[in-house]
């Protein structure tokens, strides 16, 4: 009896040892649940990362970043509420002769006048009191649209885009510069071309920056129409830093004024006889100034 029990215990022990050995022979079964869990977790993480990268690639980053940058560098304007301003790299025409662009041409040119006149159409719009406060304007000082006439409610104030006012100011200077005889200016050739160039460059810069800020209107004494309040708020760069940077990095001016063209340079031709004439006259003036200064 005891012998049989001993045999059964021995057989049970051997069976247990065999099971352990078989387990050792198949290591892939050890911790199979843990391995599966880790594998599943890694797959989920990889899937989420892939999904995130896909969504990021589809997101219009440039548009969002551009609008955020414009808001940071500009005073508040309602234009940004419903318009995504596009940015584009533009080559400004720095030519010195008549006909290079409508912005350089004289007031006698009908095509140029038509191009400039499109900016003279200053149109007013409606602003809310909240928008005025965001612009730094006190609503009580701004002219309102009467609801009984305009049917805009009790929160409609008069405003317009300052961009068109800026172009108008430049156009006034342009016309005044050639007011004597717009067809044949009395200026010497250098001054005439110089003025055309300056006007054209300033106009292109105004078009490039396209200030979206607003001008509000006020009721003034002895005036029966709203008068524009040109005292506007703007987010400005510190121009003094540019002056300091120029002074710190500029080369010696006296040396530059006597610097002459070396013989090894590659000459870029002027594109017209007018520009060639301008260069000749400019060289003559510079040489005359050098002689006066003993250079």
Characterization of this structure:
- Helix 8 packs antiparallel against helix 9.
- The protein is mostly helical and 295 residues long.
- Strands 1-2-3-4 form a 4-stranded antiparallel sheet.
- The termini are far apart.
- It has a domain of 176 residues.
- A hairpin with an 8-residue loop joins strand 3 and strand 4.
- Belongs to the ustYa family.
- This is Tat pathway signal sequence.
- Keywords: Membrane, Transmembrane, Transmembrane helix.
- One of its GO terms (biological process) is mycotoxin biosynthetic process.
What's the arrangement of strands in the largest beta sheet? 1-2-3-4
Structural class: mainly alpha
Q: How many DSSP H or I helices? A: 12
Largest sheet: 4 strands, antiparallel
Uncertain segments are none
- Mean pLDDT, rounded to whole units? 80
Number of E strands: 4
What is the straight-line distance between the termini? 132 Å
Strand content is 5-15%
**Which geometry do the CA atoms define?**
flat
State the helicity in percent bands.
40-55%
Rg is 38 Å
- SSE topology string: HHHHHEHHEHHEEHHH
Transmembrane segments: 33-56
Pfam families: UstYa
Protein name: Tat pathway signal sequence
Family: Belongs to the ustYa family.
Could you give the topology of this structure?
Elements: H1 2-25, H2 32-58, H3 61-72, H4 79-82, H5 110-117, E1 125-127, H6 129-134, H7 147-150, E2 157-161, H8 162-177, H9 189-209, E3 214-218, E4 227-229, H10 239-249, H11 253-257, H12 273-293
Antiparallel strand pairs: 1-2, 2-3, 3-4
Protein name: Tat pathway signal sequence
InterPro entries: UstYa-like
Pfam families: UstYa
């Amino acid at each position: 009896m005891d012998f049989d029990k001993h045999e059964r215990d021995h057989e049970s022990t051997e069976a247990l040892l065999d099971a352990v050995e078989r387990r050792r022979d198949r290591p892939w079964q050890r911790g199979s649940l843990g391995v599966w869990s880790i594998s599943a977790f890694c797959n989920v993480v990889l899937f989420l990362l892939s999904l995130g990268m896909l969504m990021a690639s589809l997101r219009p980053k440039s548009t969002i970043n551009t609008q955020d940058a414009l808001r940071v560098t500009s005073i508040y304007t309602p234009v940004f509420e419903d318009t995504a301003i596009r940015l584009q790299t533009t080559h400004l025409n720095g030519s010195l002769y008549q006909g290079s662009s409508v912005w350089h041409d004289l007031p006698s040119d009908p095509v140029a006048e038509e191009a400039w006149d499109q900016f003279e159409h200053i149109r007013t719009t409606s602003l809310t009191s909240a928008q005025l406060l965001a612009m730094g304007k006190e609503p009580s000082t701004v002219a309102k649209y009467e609801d009984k006439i305009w049917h805009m409610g009790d929160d409609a104030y008069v405003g317009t885009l300052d961009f068109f006012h800026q172009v108008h100011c430049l156009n006034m200077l342009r016309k005044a510069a050639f007011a004597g005889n717009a067809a044949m200016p009395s200026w010497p050739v250098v001054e005439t071309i110089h003025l055309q160039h300056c006007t054209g460059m300033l106009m292109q810069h105004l078009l490039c920056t396209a200030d979206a800020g607003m001008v509000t209107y006020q009721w003034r004494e002895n005036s029966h129409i709203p008068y524009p309040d040109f005292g506007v708020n703007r987010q400005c760069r510190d121009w003094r830093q540019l002056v300091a940077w120029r002074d710190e990095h500029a080369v010696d001016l006296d040396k530059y004024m006597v610097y002459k063209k070396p013989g090894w340079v590659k000459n870029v031709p002027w594109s017209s006889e007018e520009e060639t004439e301008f260069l000749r006259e400019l060289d003559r003036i510079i040489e005359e100034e050098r002689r006066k200064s003993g250079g």
